[in-house]
Specification:
37% helix, 9 strands, transferase, 9 helices, binds S-adenosylmethionine, NNMT_TEMT_trans, globular
């Protein structure tokens, strides 16, 4: 499964197909950015370290959180994705333009920060772009990363795991990276078995709300918030039924 991401995942095609903030993708982005803004503007979640797991070639999930943590570590299995994030961090020519997402999040946040401040904050606080593999007990092996106050993960675990048992194990590994009292913010897909990037199909573990909540509970997490956005799928590019957004506390 991982090698599929190392060899067949094209970050440019992915970003252009899912993150141009147009059509149905605007609906998903709006849902996600509004939820993230609500979570972090509550003032309940702040601290020293935030880790994002399976960041892919993106940075949008960190916009609202970036105001509340001192340092951010991002990570992904595929080198092409880590390079894409580094390109954006260095503001290199040809890097993806996240201005629409950043402007949207600033508007939702009541314009307390300007897009320029958000970009500067992200570029200054993202200190490390690391390789991770959620199928390992320590996803950062051979490194040991200090536990985080907050972990964000979006659309990663269901793409990285071959079945529900592997999903449970990788969620356990992710929860293991969190301090007691820390918060997990997860975005994902429900009842999806595949999605497509360009001509390439990627398998996905089909999840239900009940399975995710039960698994988190077994891992000592208490789910504070679970929201879903239903989708009507008319295309053959994915069989997703809904997106979910959850916030859970480590007891
Ligand atoms: C659908 S993309 C999601 C990317 C991004 N987080 C987003 O929300 O758009 C799935 C991501 O999971 C990463 N991935 C796949 N297998 C992985 C693994 N074993 N460990 C960590 N990340 C993995 C892929 O490289 C890819 O970036």
């Amino acid at each position: 499964m991982e090698d599929l991401y190392e060899t067949k995942f094209d970050p440019e095609t992915y970003l252009n197909e899912f993150y141009l903030m147009t059509g149905k993708n605007r609906r998903f982005a709006s849902f996600m950015l509004c939820q993230l803004s609500q979570t972090f503007s509550s003032g309940k979640y702040k601290g020293k370290r935030l880790i994002e797991i399976g960041t892919g070639p993106t940075i949008h999930t960190l916009i609202s959180a970036s105001a509340h943590f001192e340092e951010i570590v991002v990570s992904d299995y595929a080198e092409v994705n880590r390079r894409e994030v580094e390109k954006w961090l260095r503001d290199e020519e040809g890097c993806f333009n996240w201005n629409r997402h950043i402007q949207f999040a600033c508007d939702v946040e009541g314009r307390s920060r300007t897009p320029a401040v958000v970009k500067e904050t992200l570029r200054q606080k993202i200190k490390h772009v690391l390789k991770c593999d959620v199928n390992l007990e320590n996803p950062f092996q051979p490194l040991t990363v200090e536990p985080a106050d907050c972990i964000i993960s979006s659309l990663c675990l269901e793409a990285a795991c071959k079945d529900r048992e592997a999903y449970r194990r990788s969620l356990e590994a992710v929860v293991g990276l969190l301090q007691p009292g820390g918060v997990l913010v997860m975005i994902g897909d429900l009842s999806e078995t595949f999605y497509t990037v360009g001509d390439q199909r990627f398998p996905v573990v089909s999840l239900s709300q009940e399975f995710i909540e039960d698994t988190l509970c077994e891992l000592g997490m208490s789910v504070q918030h679970f929201n879903r956005q239903k989708l009507t799928n008319t295309e053959d590019r994915s069989d997703i039924e809904a997106n979910f957004y959850l916030v859970a506390h480590k007891e």
